[in-house]
Amino acid sequence: MLPAPADRIAVVGILNVTPDSFSDGGRFPSFDDAVAAGARLRADGADLVDVGGESTRPGAPRVPAEDELRRVLPVIRPLVERGVPVSVDTYRARVAEAALAAGAQVVNDVSGGLGDCDMARVVRDAGCPWILMHWRGHSASMQQLARYDDVVADVRRELCRRVDAAVAAGVDPARLVLDPGLGFAKTAAHNWALLAALDSLIALGLPVLIGASRKAFLGSLLAAPDGTSRPVGDREDATTAITAYAALAGAWGVRVHEVRRSVDAARTVTAIRNAGR
């Protein structure tokens, strides 16, 4: 089952073991360093540590499955041995299957099942939660696909199609989580519109995960007077604000780089709500 804290929404900690992710690529010179970072995320309150071996930043090239496996499996296994709940951030069925065999509990699929037609089988057979993100194409070309008649209605409709496809393949709908895919084939205006309409996504009746952490649209919002985007590492306050907003809106969880601030924000929102009952 999905992690469900009693006192707040879920907080998923990001652990990218890649050389080129937009925020933390190349941070970990060894597997031991990556494992230690994952353990710190858990100690800071992460309900899941999301391990990814392929960058999905705009423009990122694909990597061979063998490279992805070599990056994630030596991190997942020792984290699981330490009792850390792990999700695998991949849209390759082969990688997901190996990660689940190594002890991962959740598949976080940024393609929503479109990237690999065998992913539904892997998830169905494992009986694990499957995070379906809204996706229109691979990172190298996805920003060319950021065209919508109505971004909220279009994303809702396309996510519903992914849910229908998953259920038709035999996946238990109770295991599905939806992610609107902020920044994936979306402009800053699209991202803000989806956040403003978060209640309409939650109304679909499935848990919703929001992944806004440190993304470019926050850097643009916080730009200097000369138009220079706020550096990636200085976007944490905005990220934490979105965590509080997601908690107020009723999202299932958020996916963030810095866990403790988001845990604190989510617990604070719950305390306010509980005080008013």
Question: In summary, what is this structure?
Answer:
42% of the residues lie in helices and 12% in strands.
Task: Explain the overall architecture.
This protein is an alpha/beta fold and 277 residues long. The protein has ten helices and eight strands. It has helices at 31-43, 65-81, 93-101, 119-126, 151-168, 188-196, 198-202, 216-221, 236-249, 259-275; strands at 10-16, 48-52, 86-89, 106-109, 130-133, 176-179, 209-210, 253-256. An eight-stranded parallel sheet has the order 6-5-4-3-2-1-8-7. α2 runs parallel beside α3 (93-101). The protein starts with 9 loop residues before the first strand and ends with a helix. The relative contact order is 0.13. The mean pLDDT is 92.
